[in-house]
Design a protein that fits this description.
The chain contains 7 helices and 9 strands. With about 210 residues, it is α+β, with helices and mostly antiparallel strands. The strands form 2 sheets. Strands 1, 2, 3, 6, 7 and 8 form a 6-stranded mixed beta sheet that branches. The longest helix is centred in the middle third of the chain and has 13 residues. It binds inosine-5'-diphosphate and manganese (II) ion (3 copies). It comes from Mytilus galloprovincialis.
Length: about 210
């Protein structure tokens, strides 16, 4: 089946298949990312909203945290967020996209520059990507999650929210490793692992276990 064309996405969706260029992920500082050097790049910002939670499934599997990810219009998993519009800065972009895609109440949960976790260049896509992360309470997480159903982009760009399982089950595969074997948009798979480590939701050795 050939691609039916990228339309206006062609400007940055250069390569054809997901995962063609796995490790195209050059970390840069947040400051540099907003400088002259990258002003000609397309920028995109995505965010990981999460709430720690110590429930244990069947006295076996620690939930650890609820993480908000989404099934996207392109059939790939990713975080809420999107392209930074011309004249917008990456932070305004992510707040606008979160309002569009999950109906985030910016009066309560607006992201700040201090919520930036990592910025990197995906050369093959001519994209600078900014990844933000913010911890909320379990109640706030549920409230945000409930509201996603009435978000402007719900049902077209955003096809439903999911919470990745963060435990590994007895066969060493089901749970997080199985989740990680799905297809991801852009570098969202790497971002998830970075977010889990950055916020100490998973220890390094647990993350190593999930690497393919
Ligand atoms: O969760 C993500 N993390 C990092 N990059 C992503 C994620 N989802 C998509 N991308 C990449 O960023 C680009 C723009 O993101 P997205 O498709 O969300 O824009 P939009 O919401 O403005 O339509 C996509 O073409 C893809 O390459
Ligand atoms: Mn969007
Ligand atoms: Mn957009
Ligand atoms: Mn998006």
């Amino acid at each position: 089946m050939t691609d039916i064309g990228w339309g206006n996405l062609a400007q940055y969706e250069h390569y054809g298949r997901v995962g063609d260029i796995k490790e195209d992920f050059d970390i840069i500082s947040y400051e540099d990312s907003k400088g002259e050097l990258y002003s000609s790049f397309k920028h995109a910002s995505h965010a990981m909203l999460f709430a720690r939670n110590d429930t244990v499934l069947w006295d076996l599997y620690k939930s650890r945290a609820a993480i908000m990810m989404q099934m996207r219009f392109d059939g790939l998993l990713g975080f809420p967020g999107g392209l930074v519009d011309p004249g917008e800065n990456p932070l305004d972009g992510v707040n606008r996209e979160l309002e569009e895609e999950i109906g985030l109440d910016l009066c309560k949960h607006k992201l700040q520059n201090s919520d930036q976790v990592v910025s990197f260049v995906n050369k093959s896509k001519n994209l600078v990507l900014h990844f933000y992360g913010k911890e909320v309470t379990v109640n706030d997480f549920s409230e945000i999650e409930m509201k996603t159903l009435s978000a402007p982009d719900y049902g077209n760009e955003t096809l439903g929210m999911i919470r990745p399982p963060l435990y590994t089950m007895g066969d060493g595969y089901r749970g997080l490793p199985a989740f990680l074997s799905n297809s991801y948009a852009g570098n969202s798979r790497q971002e998830l692992l970075i977010g889990l480590q950055h916020f100490k939701i998973l220890e390094q050795d647990e993350i190593e276990k999930t690497r393919r």
